[in-house]
Hints:
mainly alpha, 68% helix
Amino acid sequence: MQNRSFAAAVKAAFPHTIPIMTGYLAVGMAYGVLMASKGYGFLWAGFVSAFAFCGSMQYVAITLLTTAFDPLQAFVLSLMVNARHLFFSLALLPKYRGLGRLRYFMIYTLSDENFSLSSSVEPPEDTDPTLFYFAMSFLTWLYWVAFSMLGGLLGGLVGGKLFPKVPVVWLRRACSWCCSSSRSSRKRTVPPALPVWCVLWRVWPFSARTTWSSRPWC
């Protein structure tokens, strides 16, 4: 007998979304920090993430928001960046057919990660398939919005006060430590905060003299 409880569907779907949650922690926070660096508050970061939910295009949209707006250019650029979703939706038509009104939200939140989950993960026998796929889509959407807002909040509150006082050499070492492919062989445990510092080092303008071209990347 299938359990038609949404809580049960979230419980069953959550373990499959953990890898996406960890990835969105870094990428979503980086987006929020970038929005804060352009003068947009954390609510704006959450608003754009909730209603656009297009990942890479949101990074591109930061430039569109801060320059003269060209609707045709924005449309063509969005189409080029997100054209792959047309093929994603075609591949998932058999699975999403017959899922009721919830399928509209799943279509709206169809991302690379959701496509990977929906095409490879099957719902448990005791869980309603519609609620299971909806729960996966809802969780990934929630992660992206929450971490975007967290990055925007962090960038807006402590960005200008804390980061310039942190020795740059520490951040460079932290970034190198996080990005090193051999870090698993290190005897010491990597502090949990280092991935966050790595993200902030990549995106935060520490001084007027530091530019994107001159800043060392991992």
